[in-house]
Task: structure prediction
Amino acid sequence: MKDMAHDAPPGRADIRTEPATKPTALAISGASKTYPGASGAALSNVSLDIAENEFFTLLGPSGCGKTTLLRAIAGFEDLSAGSISLHGERIDALAPNLRSINTVFQHYALFPHMSVQENVAYPLRRLGWSRAETETRVREMLSLVQLEQLAERMPAKLSGGQQQRIALARALAPNPKLLLLDEPLSALDLKLRREMRAELKRIQVETGITFLFVTHDQEEALAMSDRVAVMFDGALVQIGSPEDIYNRPFNAFVATFIGETNLLPGRVERSSTGRDVVTVLDSLELCCPPDADVGQAVLVSVRLERVAIHPAGATPIAGVVEASVFLGTDRVVDVRVGEHLVQARVQQADGAGAALGPGDLCSIGIDAGAATVLSSELA
Amino acid sequence: MGEGAAPPTPKADRRHVARRLMLAPALLVLTVGLVCPLGIVVIYSFLEAGTYGGVEWRFSLEAYQQFLFQRDIFDNTLTFSTAYLEIFGRSFLMAVLATAICLAVGFPTAYFIATRPADQRMFWVFLVTVPYWVNLLIRTLALLFLLRDQGPINAALLGVGAIETPLRIAYTDFAITLGLAYSYLPFMILPIYAALERSDIRLVEAAYDLYASKARVLVDVVIPGAKAGIIAGSLLVFIPSIGSYLAPDILGGGRELLAGNLIAQQFQASRNGPFGAACAVILMSVVMIGLIQFVRSQERTRREALR
Result:
């Protein structure tokens, strides 16, 4: 799994095709971390560049190493190997207080014995800002997070969402070169989380500070990020724009971790026209990745919303409806096609699919462009 | 305690009664061990001293008068005297000093223990308590042997030629203060350790992340976080120190009186129970009033903080 990212076939949305338009803010090279006594590596050979002003997200399940990487960047963990540079300067040997990086912690970590404005002023006082500058900056930050009226409050008197905003204001106040956000929304309720997503994005654009956001919530990652790095088992699996990783997942892990998908087995075959193609569901022919051999088994990912349901006989792929679940705006229909189960997400307004019930005969249509061929090793 | 005889009640009431009954043993101990003796002391302080010890059962304010005024044995006039006030003042100062020493020694110790890996902490706490398996009297005597003119400290200093005549350490105020600090040190370490252990490591990281040096993290986050433990520890050292009897008696040689020795002396050699009782009541009242004021001011700042 770890090697996949590095052996990625060219022409894919893999980790080596990075946009080089903006200067690099953070460069991580070969970062590895092994805890003494642990069986596997917490981080293995992670390399990535984050551009200035970028909203970059590390996405992965718990235990994938994203928090270890974040703590190494902040200075709370030492790397076993590799380097971290900020604006071209090596920082991995510096203490946290000597790095121009601030963190918004998962549980906010506001100082309970200081008022809101004392909290926000804290990093500025440590940096030796003058009293006047500090006061101006604190007011500016509180207005940025729209909580000017709470300047005198103590943290214990704030709601979770307010504490979150103050933690953000405090971390942004010294205008760091990089802001780390460690699952900052996970302690908030769903409604507040959605609001804060838009708010975070607005603040990132307004301040122009590079954000490195860590989350296990794929929806958050897709909603806010310029680019997303998907991590699994201590290694990077795929880096790309949200659209990239959603539409062209590199492997089955990315395909299933981000959004819902059908994973269908396919086989590389020589077609009648002499080209290599991947055949799925016996009849659908897809473009073949250039490095695949004839006869090789592969996995194909097809997003649920890219599967269309038609009346029986309309397409060559015939199936039987097994279940149809109403979900509000849309409906998920399970269709049995031979030995495979294909799920389709159909709009309520889409008459053909929505009207079918269990046992009804139908046919399904998959656009060749909607299917992504994955490496079978990951099946 | 009439709950036991209460008529049958709904379940909730019965549980309430049961909970009250569970308090009964503690209440009994407090009544017999605290309220009764304290009552006797207060009553004693308002009686007349018997000529050959004991008390005469006649109401008198003589004992309290004696604390502040000296009665001339010839013409029976009263003159204001600060002798006893000075003894109380010196006791207060030494208790403050002992508390300060305990804080200076105890905080780093507690911090050290609290920053050990979780599975090692209990071992260190255990080590702190080891000296307390030995009786306080023995430990105080041992300290005296260590500090006296012919003791190992002076022997070592003489041996290396640092001094020519033995340093006078035993039977000084310094020795008493040292003895007090040594006697009550665990009462400082343990509450501070408990507070530090419960404090939030994430706040330390946050301060460190926000450009605080390690020293600033200590002052800005760690110490405020351990405030409750520091206060509790200071009270636990100060209160027994101010009334302490053993350390001043042994390490001070009983030459300069402290409050504890003064009180003991009245009940023993001076055979003036009412005056001893009055001194005890005055000492207790002063400490209690001070404590109540302190707790009130704490409450006020806490309420202001939550305004």
User: Anything to note?
Assistant: The CA atoms of residues 262 and 276 of chain B lie 7 Å apart. Chain B has a mean pLDDT of 89. The beta strands of chain B are 47-49, 55-59, 69-71, 78-80. The interface with chain A takes residues 200, 202-203, 205-213, 216, 220-221, 224, 227, 305-307 of chain B (CB under 8 Å).
